[in-house]
Design goal:
heterodimer, A: about 260 residues, alpha/beta, six-stranded mixed beta sheet, four-stranded antiparallel beta sheet, 7 helices, B: about 260 residues, mainly alpha, globular, ABC_transporter_ATP-bind (chain A)
C-alpha cells in the first residue's frame, strides 16, 4: 500500500475583487511509496507549495483528498512534519527547546525528551549550540534546527517547502548532503518541493515535474543513481543526462509562465 | 551631515546633556536677567531652594510616595484586566468582533472627564484616583495588545500546528510568548501616560500627592514649587522607564540577542 495517496486534489482560489477565480492546481493524482524521497520540481507559481500545504493540512483542497496510511488528511498534525522556506524557529526558545517543542506538546517526560533532543542535535551537527537563540544562528544552522525539530517528532512523512531556497549556494550544497545522509541512514518518506533542478535530481529517488500554473504533473522521472550519493555525483554523465532532460521540461514550462504573465496582469 | 549615519556613544552623551545645559541656561537668563516677571516664572536657583524647603519642611516626599503608589496601583489594575482581554481579542476573531467597536469608542472617552462622575461613585479617596488611571489606561492597553497579538507571525503558528499543537497550545505556547516583549513594551508606553492621568486626578478633589502640591502652590503663586513638582514627575518617569527597560531586557533576552 502507498504511504501517501493524493487523489484528484485541485485548488481554486476565489477571485479577488469580483475577478474570475484563479485555478492554482489541476486535479493531481500521486502515490508515494514508504521511504521514498520524492522531489516536486516546478517553475515558481506552479502551485507546488500549495500542493505541499494541502498534504500538510494547512490548506484544504477544492476537490479531491489526501490519504496518509489510508486516513484522510483534514487538518495539520504531528504525523506530517514540515520544514518551511522562511525561518520558522520559535525565537523565544533555544535550539534544544525548539527541537523539543513537538515532544513537549505531546507531554513527553523530561528525561526521555532530553535524550531524544540530544540525539537530534547530534544528527544535524549542532552540538555546542543547544542553548543558542535562533537569532544567534546562521540561516543554514536555523534550517538544520528546523529539520531536527520536524524529525524529533518522528513523523510518518517529512514535508519540505524549498527549505534551502534562502541559503547561499555553498551552504545549500552542504545542507543537501546532510539531509540526504540522514535519509540514507534513517529512511523516512519525504516530499521535497524545489525549483532547483540539480537539487531535485541529487536528493530524489523520484522527481515529479510540474507544469506552469495551473499546476499539473508533467512528468514522473525515477532517479536510479546509487546511494550513498556523494556531491561529485553532480558532475557525472548520468547526472548530466538527467539534468539535460529535466532542464528541457522545466524550460518549456518557465517560458509558458513568462508568456502568461502579461495576460494575467 | 550624512543622513542615517550613526553617532558615536560619546558624542551622543555630550549632545544629549548639552541641550539640558542650554535649556537651563536660557531659563536662568530670562529669569535672573529680569526679562520676565518673577511672579510668573521662578528662576532655577529659587526653584531649587523652594524644592529643598518642600522636601525638608513640608514632607513633600510623602506626596511623592502617594503619587507613585497611585500610578502603579491604577496601572497594575488596568494591566491585569486589559492584557488578558487584549490577548483574547487578538487570538479569537469573534471576541474581537464583539469587543473591538466598543473598546475603540471607549478609548476616546477622556479619563479626566470621568473625574466628577468617579468622585460621585467612589468619593475623593484613593479608589477614585486609582479608577481615573484605570479608565485612562485600560482601553489603550486592550487595543494595542489586541493589534500586536493579531499580527502574530502566521508561519510560526503553522509550524506549531505541524508539530502537533492544539488550538489552546497555540495560544499559550506560541501567541503569548511570541508577543510577550511587545506587550511589555506597550505597558511601558502606557505607564508614561498614567503619569499624566494621576496629576489630573490629584488636581481635583485631592488632599495629597504631587498634583495637589502643584494646585496648592498655584494659589500662592509659588511657581518655584510648581516647577520643582513637574521636574520631580519627569525624573520619576525617567527612572521607571529605565527600570522597565532593564526588566524587559532581563525577561526577554531572546528578542535582543
Amino acid at each position: 500500500m502507498s504511504k501517501l495517496l493524493i487523489e484528484g486534489v485541485s485548488r481554486t482560489f476565489a477571485g479577488v475583487r469580483g475577478g474570475l477565480p484563479v485555478k492554482a492546481l489541476m486535479p493531481i493524482d500521486l502515490a508515494v511509496a514508504a521511504n521514498d524521497f520524492i522531489t516536486i520540481l516546478g517553475p515558481s507559481g506552479c502551485g507546488k507549495s500549495t500542493l505541499l500545504r494541502i498534504v500538510a493540512g494547512l490548506e484544504a483542497p477544492s476537490e479531491g483528498r489526501v490519504l496518509l496510511d489510508g486516513k484522510a488528511v483534514t487538518r495539520p498534525g504531528p504525523d506530517r512534519g514540515m520544514v518551511f522556506q522562511s525561518y520558522t524557529l520559535f525565537p523565544w526558545l533555544t535550539v534544544a527547546e525548539n527541537i523539543a517543542f513537538g515532544l513537549r506538546e505531546r507531554g513527553m517526560a523530561p528525561k526521555e525528551l532530553d535524550d531524544i533532543v540530544a540525539s537530534y542535535v547530534d544528527l544535524v551537527g549542532l552540538k555546542g549550540f543547544e542553548n543558542h537563540w535562533p537569532k544567534q544562528l546562521s540561516g543554514g544552522m536555523q534550517q538544520r534546527t528546523a529539520i531536527a525539530r520536524a524529525l524529533a517528532n518522528d513523523p510518518e512523512i517529512l514535508l519540505l517547502d524549498e527549505p534551502f531556497g534562502a541559503l547561499d549556494n555553498q551552504t545549500r550544497g552542504l545542507m543537501q548532503e546532510l539531509l540526504l545522509g540522514i535519509w540514507e541512514r534513517r529512511k523516512k518518506t519525504v516530499l521535497f518541493v524545489t525549483h532547483d533542478i540539480e537539487e531535485a535530481i541529487f536528493m530524489a529517488s523520484r522527481v515529479i515535474v510540474m507544469t506552469a500554473r495551473p499546476g499539473s504533473i508533467k512528468s514522473d522521472v525515477a532517479i536510479d543513481l546509487p546511494h550513498p550519493r556523494h556531491y561529485t555525483l553532480k558532475t557525472s554523465p548520468e547526472f548530466s543526462a538527467l539534468k539535460a532532460r529535466l532542464t528541457e521540461d522545466i524550460r518549456v514550462e518557465a517560458m509558458r509562465t513568462a508568456q502568461a504573465r502579461p495576460a494575467e496582469a | 551631515m550624512r543622513p542615517l549615519h550613526p553617532v558615536s556613544p560619546g558624542l551622543r552623551t555630550v549632545l544629549g546633556i548639552s541641550f539640558f545645559v542650554l535649556f537651563i541656561a536660557f531659563w536662568a537668563w530670562i529669569t535672573l536677567g529680569g526679562h520676565v516677571n518673577r511672579i510668573f516664572l521662578a528662576d532655577p536657583l529659587s526653584m531649587l531652594r523652594d524644592g529643598w524647603r518642600l522636601l525638608v519642611e513640608d514632607r513633600f516626599w510623602l506626596d511623592i510616595l502617594i503619587t507613585i503608589w497611585r500610578v502603579f496601583g491604577g496601572f497594575v489594575m488596568a494591566s491585569v484586566v486589559a492584557v488578558p482581554i487584549g490577548i483574547a481579542m487578538g487570538a479569537w476573531k469573534p471576541v474581537e468582533a464583539f469587543l473591538e467597536p466598543f473598546v475603540s469608542f471607549a478609548r476616546y472617552l477622556p479619563a479626566s472627564a470621568f473625574i466628577p462622575l468617579l468622585i460621585l461613585w467612589a468619593g475623593i479617596g484613593e479608589l477614585e484616583k486609582l479608577l481615573v488611571i484605570f479608565v485612562g489606561s485600560v482601553f489603550q492597553i486592550i487595543l494595542i495588545v489586541a493589534v500586536k497579538v493579531g499580527s502574530t507571525r502566521r508561519d510560526l503558528v503553522e509550524a506549531a500546528y505541524t508539530l502537533g499543537s492544539t488550538n489552546n497550545g497555540i495560544v499559550k505556547r506560541v501567541i503569548m510568548p511570541a508577543n510577550a516583549p511587545e506587550i511589555a513594551e506597550t505597558l511601558r508606553l502606557v505607564l508614561g501616560w498614567a503619569w499624566t492621568y494621576v496629576i489630573v486626578a490629584e488636581l481635583i478633589g485631592s488632599s495629597s500627592g504631587i498634583g495637589y502640591m502643584i494646585i496648592n502652590s498655584q494659589s500662592r503663586l509659588a511657581t518655584g514649587q510648581i516647577i520643582f513638582g513637574i521636574i520631580v514627575i519627569g525624573l520619576i518617569g525617567l527612572l521607571s522607564d529605565f527600570a522597565f527597560k532593564a526588566l524587559n531586557r532581563l525577561l526577554f533576552p531572546w528578542s535582543l540577542a
